[in-house]
Amino acid sequence: MSDIGQNDAFATPVDMVAKTQNVDPVSGLDQHDVLKRRDRYGPNQLHATEKQSALVIFANQFKGMIVWLLAFAAGLSFYYRDIAEGIAIVVVLAINAAIGFFTELRAARSMEALARMSEFTTRVRRGGTVLSVDAHELVPGDIVLLEAGDVVTADLRLAQASNLQCDESVLTGESVPVAKQVDPVAPNSAIGDRKSMAFKGTAITQGAGEGIVTSTGMATELGRINHLVQTAESVASPLELRLDRLGHRLVWLTLALAVLVIGAGIFRGHEVAAMIETGVALAVAAVPEGLPVVATLCLARGMWRMAARNAIISNLASVETLGATTVILTDKTGTMTENRMSVVRYLTSGADIVINRTGKSLQFETGAGETDPQADPQLGAVLRIGALCNNAALEQGNQGPLGDPMEVALLQVARDAGQGRDALQQTYEEVREHAFDQDTKMMATVHRDKDGVFYAVKGAPEAVLKVCTRVLEPDGARDLDAATRAQWQERSRGAASDGLRLLALAQKQTEREDIPPYEGLTLAGMVCLRDPLRADVGAAIAAAQAAGVRVVMLTGDHADTAAAIARGAGLGQGGQLTVMEGGDLDALACEGSDRSLQDRILSADVFARVAPATKLKLAALYQQNGHIVAMTGDGVNDAPALKQADIGIAMGQRGTEVAREAADMVLKDDSVGTIIAAMRQGRVIFDNIRKFVVYLMSCNVSEVLIVGLAVGAGLPMPLLPLQILFLNLVTDVFPAFALGFGAGDERVMRQPPRDPTEQIIDRSRWILIGILGGAITASTLAAFSLALHWLVLPTEAAVTVAFLTLALAQLWNVFNVRMPGSGLIVNEVTRNLWVWGALVLCAGLIAAVFWVPGLSELLKLPDPGRAGLLLALGGSLGPLVIGQAILRFGPSRWSGV
Ligand code: ATP
């Protein structure tokens, strides 16, 4: 095999390139070749997508301040010859690093697996058959098939190009698509001029083609500029950044406090070394270093849950944004409806013909009885136009139907009525097609028949009516006068308001095949199709409304059809449905346009006859008015709007890869219900993160306060450094993780969306942290004093009472972070099995202190006796009672965890 990293393929004829690549373009590579080449060239990946090594993650654990503080404390113990304590601190350090390491590793691997889920697939020809493979499996020499909407996944020398155009802005910055060709170009052409190539990362905007892979991975043009592109670099989400910032601020606060405690302790006559160790232990306990990584883990877990519910999210930030979304701009076809069309009615000038289907047989019923398509020339004409002006294909063998479901439905009826397309094409040989254009909303095909040239046209009723001059009547064609035109408009509106989708069908017979298709046509009739609503739509819309999220439907369809579908789905406010047309937004283009128009647009529930450019405008308008916008899209033209939206949502089943690439979330089942489910997850995750931050901080605050106040008040030390470290490892960590993993409460979807500028820990939550932390502190110090003065226990045993009170109070504290208004016994925290698991584990570890020989001596925790134990248990319940009282009677904003 000659060398394959070919740099001059664009200037070389295709057959030479195929030779150099050692591949036959007709059959492609065989499996053996593929494996050999994959060994040689590696996976088709940019380095940025390679996985983060465990070693790097391990090394990361030793970068943080906690480790250095612990190492300092251990050093101090060894210096003062307290070997046992020194070793214990090293063990703490190791456990701390291990927890950090596994958390981060898990988060990193989850993120990588999620990234793989949204990887592109590519159609290749291998061993004579067309297969769909993951993009990273491509090797040089593979034959890749391209069509509009694909993202190119390797550098290709084009072997076939029909009307092929490529958006190369990723590489060249030029946003106008480039027309591609098969002929070689000049050897010194710049990238933008290499029209015989399709490059990795670019998007096919039009046409179809085939190419031979010339380079993969980092050898591609995209790979070369990868240091600029950084495509797969994972960016921390705003939430992680905010937590990081919060953590940093707390570090300084904690250090200041630790220094204060040390100073006060020494001033009060405590031993210098003991005070330094206490200060260090406090700093370790209070620094919430793990916050960002635990948040990452929670977000990643949430992303998995969403993936299981068919919503694939490509970045962490979107999970967060989803929870704050205030408006969903959704497509109609396929998202609200099933995109499973069937023809239910034809309108001809003679009659409304209803279709009755029993199995494969069809009856065409008019008001006057059944009619036969062979004997009814008007019905025959509409069936024929529908079948001829059509790009779909019916099912064959075990392959299902291909193409636009609306066109498939037209083909099916025509076939079942005895007008199969293959037979028709014998008499009407297709010579040209004028593809469907969203501006004209029409499509035409040109055929040669025995009388000359036949034009078959279909399109939106108002568009087709405008270009028809005649109409087909039972006794032949006649002029289409104003009154008949108005009648047709009326009939089409009547059918549309039943929620039917309409197409008008027209024809003309001429001599020439190259005249403008949309002139002088004869209207043959209209066809009405039904696209049923998805079963879950009603419930999903109701859930969105309850959650204070507006759902607005955008469609290219007619306003009446759209309104009927929207009503069926339960859109609108208070039984009122406001429908606008895409064209109404044009007036918005002018600067400072009418505010009342803006208000009308912002309160509309449905936009009909919307073009992709209008979607972009709408998203921007909502955003200017403070909304967080989620928007669905599937076509190549939708990509800018998907990028503009805060959450761009692409359709996994019928969406193009270009739309998927522009989107933040891909719906595997295309359903609007999945958007709502993902939104719920987004809210739950944010809530969970808040929960564990409030939990963790209130526990940490209490540790700092207990020691600080005891020192300030001249009491003996209620907690020793190693005990603080132990508590920090045991009671804080596991319940906090468990809270982060909660499945959430139904209530999250009965609240309005969160203000996106809101802090994770706002004023009221700081107050709550203060109260809970204060309550734990008060209980512990009270138990400590009672142990000393009431039970008259020796100081060491009183320390055990303080330790146990604090440990248990921290455990019960998990129940204080339930949602306000949730049940006292049954709520999202008590339903969270992780929480129970964490509590059992922690209780076991605390018990182990007293049962595992040597541990209680090491931690200096002698048995406090039965009375001491009861005191600790009773004291630990105080903060729980206070927390529950706040939930029940306090201002709701305090307890909105
Ligand atoms: P949605 O946005 O909900 O998918 P849509 O498919 O109706 O709705 P467009 O694709 O923008 O939106 O189509 C606009 C109109 O053009 C349609 O309502 C239909 O009348 C007409 N139309 C759509 N596809 C074709 C086609 N293949 N041939 C002819 N006319 C079409």
UniProtKB/TrEMBL annotation:
Question: How is this protein situated with respect to the membrane?
Answer: Multi-pass membrane protein
Q: Which residues form the Cation-transporting P-type ATPase N-terminal domain?
A: 8-82
Q: Give GO terms: molecular function aspect only.
A: ATP binding; ATP hydrolysis activity; P-type ion transporter activity
InterPro entries per record: ATPase_P-typ_cation-transptr_C, ATPase_P-typ_cation-transptr_N, ATPase_P-typ_cyto_dom_N, ATPase_P-typ_P_site, ATPase_P-typ_TM_dom_sf, ATPase_P-typ_transduc_dom_A_sf, ATPase_P-type_domA, HAD-like_sf
Tell me where it resides.
Answer: Endomembrane system
One Gene Ontology cellular component? endomembrane system
**Is Hydrolase one of the keywords?**
no
- The main place the protein resides is membrane
Q: Which UniProt keywords apply?
A: ATP-binding, Magnesium, Membrane, Nucleotide-binding, Phosphoprotein, Translocase, Transmembrane, Transmembrane helix
- Can you tell which superkingdom this protein's organism belongs to? Bacteria
TM annotation in the entry: 62-80, 86-107, 250-267, 279-300, 692-712, 724-745, 766-791, 797-815, 835-855, 867-887
Q: Which PROSITE patterns match?
A: ATPASE_E1_E2
Query: What is the designated name of this protein?
Result: Cation-transporting P-type ATPase N-terminal domain-containing protein
Q: Which organism is it from?
A: Thioclava indica
